[in-house]
Amino acid sequence: MFGLSMGELAVILLVAVVVVGPKELPTVVRAVVRTLAQIRGIGNEFRKNFDELAKEAELNALRDEFIQLPTIIDLEGKEQRVYDISEDLKADATKRLPKAEEPAAPAEKTEAKDER
User: Fold this and answer.
1) What is the value of pTM for the model shown?
2) Is the dihedral of CA 73, 79, 83, 88 positive or negative?
3) How many beta carbons lie within 10 A of that of residue 25, not counting itself?
4) pLDDT truncated to tens, each residue of the chain (116 aa)?
5) Are 66 and 58 in contact (CB under 8 A)?
6) Residue 80: which of 89, 90, 69 has the closest Cα?
7) Cα distance between residue 30 and residue 37, in whole Å
8) DSSP of the chain, one letter per residue?
9) At 75, phi and psi to the nearest 5?
10) Considering all CA atoms of the chain, what is the largest pairwise distance in Å, rounded to the nearest integer?
11) Rounded-to-integer distance, Cα 34 and Cα 65, Å
């Protein structure tokens, strides 16, 4: 624990009892434990914020890399231009798909007359 041996912990405890006194020792130990818990909480909060910043920086780097995608370098070291094929796909799809027929006009109701 904290890199201290049992003998070192016993010496620290003995000094604490002599300096603080046996009556106040539990109060001091509680205060020290609370302080250590607060320090640990601050450290965890700092680590969490640091991780969020690192994640955000990583996302920004990925976004910048994605923006640079239209130009890639092939295996021979030549730049190749990449283009958006969505317009080509839309044009091709409209050529191949049959044109949608307009909805038929509603049939006129013919009243059947009783011929009696």
Assistant:
1) 0.43
2) negative
3) 14
4) 467 788 888 888 888 888 888 888 889 889 988 999 999 999 999 999 998 988 888 888 887 777 766 666 666 666 666 566 667 777 777 777 666 565 555 655 555 555 54
5) no
6) 69
7) 11
8) -TT--HHHHHHHHHHHHHHH-TTTHHHHHHHHHHHHHHHHHHHHHHHHHHHHHHHHHHHHHHHHHHHTTTEEE-TTS-EEE----HHHHHHHHHHHSPPPPPPPPPPPP-PPPP--
9) -65, -25
10) 124
11) 46
Q: How many residues does the chain have?
A: 116
- Give the separation between CA 79 and CA 65, rounded to whole angstroms: 16
Residue found by looking up tokens 């990583």 in the block: 58
Residue 98 and residue 90 in contact, taking contact as beta carbons nearer than 8 Å: no
Q: Within 10 Å of residue 94's Cβ, how many Cβ atoms?
A: 9
